[in-house]
Amino acid sequence: MISLVPLLSPFLQEQEGSYFFPVQASEFAADTDWLFHFILWVSVVSFVLVVGVTGWFIWRYRQAREPEPQPSATHSVKLELIWSIIPSIFLVIMFWEGFQVFVDHRNPPPSADRVDVIGSKWLWTFRYPNGAELPELHVIKDRPVRLVLQSKDVLHSVWIPAFRVKMDAVPGRYTQLWFTPTIANGPDEFFPLLCTEYCGTQHSSMNSKVVVHPNAASFQTWMNEATVDYDPDPEKWADNGALVYKNKGCQVCHSIDGTTAGKVGPSFKGVFGANRPLASGESVLADENYLLESIENPIAKVVANYAPAMAVNGGVSLSKEEKDYLVAFIKSLAD
């Protein structure tokens, strides 16, 4: 489709960011930024023009110049055409450019890499084609990627400001967004990924990061390192559980040092073997069965002073082995 953006490309070089926008890090960024600035400056000029003319009329006709009221002037066809046609031209440009951006955002190329994104209170989980599930999004520079979104509980929304993309994750259905990264991250750098739909008390902490690898080889190296190979030795189950705790986002709601500030769930430290007061007024011994039940059905026995906010399995997919490892890890934190 015809667009004005290629004609204005020399004026769109804002890759280092601007007052309104962060760095332009995807192919969508230039189009989106141009459309924003076009609408902004058309609005500013229109506002100044209308307010200026209004102010001039107020000053010019601040007092009557005739002793008697005069008949009103008839309408001017020329003036009416001017103030109808000129704004319409700008509105058509806004619609056309916005429509093209919308269509581009909704039509990923067939060759795009796929990453499944699972939103749950209050973390993002990214599932890669090899089955790995991690709390970070890793993509490849200059290669399109399609995110297939789903929610385990309430409405969430993926927003990556540097890529100028946003899409809701809706319970009970799949949604998608796509983009092509154009800037690779340096060492220890990343683009923020945020939840921009209020989803509960820890909404503001439901953040992740996007790492853009410079090439496929770098991405594959990372993937090989990130893929977790659990040690089946029972003596290593607690160490495996520590990896589950980290990779599945358990740290978002539960600490392992006894602190509860900023957490919506109790700390894992000292849980095993203790009598746990429940919201029902009863108490229960925190043995292996209690820990496993609390992972699989968190609202079965809600701890006193905490809300039943946790989803099944913490809102992520856990294998039977991973649940066993997590139980072993919590046992290792007993006083």
What would you say this structure looks like, in words?
With 335 residues, the chain is α+β, with helices and mostly antiparallel strands. The N and C termini lie far apart (66 Å). It contains 6 helices and 12 strands. The protein has helices at residues 29-60, 77-106, 216-226, 237-247, 288-296, 320-332; strands at 113-120, 123-127, 133-134, 137-140, 145-151, 156-160, 165-169, 175-179, 191-195, 207-213, 275-277, 283-285.
Order of helices and strands: HHEEEEEEEEEEHHEEHH
How would you describe the oligomerization state of the chains in this entry?
single chain
Number of helices: 6
First and last CA, distance: 66 Å
Into which percentage range does the β-strand content fall?
A: 15-25%
Helical content band: 25-40%
Overall, the morphology is elongated
Biggest beta sheet attributes: 5 strands, mixed
> Count the strands?
12
The residue-averaged pLDDT reads 83
Structural classification: alpha+beta
Q: What is this structure's SSE topology?
A:
Blueprint: H1 29-60, H2 77-106, E1 113-120, E2 123-127, E3 133-134, E4 137-140, E5 145-151, E6 156-160, E7 165-169, E8 175-179, E9 191-195, E10 207-213, H3 216-226, H4 237-247, E11 275-277, E12 283-285, H5 288-296, H6 320-332
Parallel strand pairs: 1-5, 4-10
Antiparallel strand pairs: 1-2, 2-3, 5-8, 6-7, 6-9, 9-10, 11-12
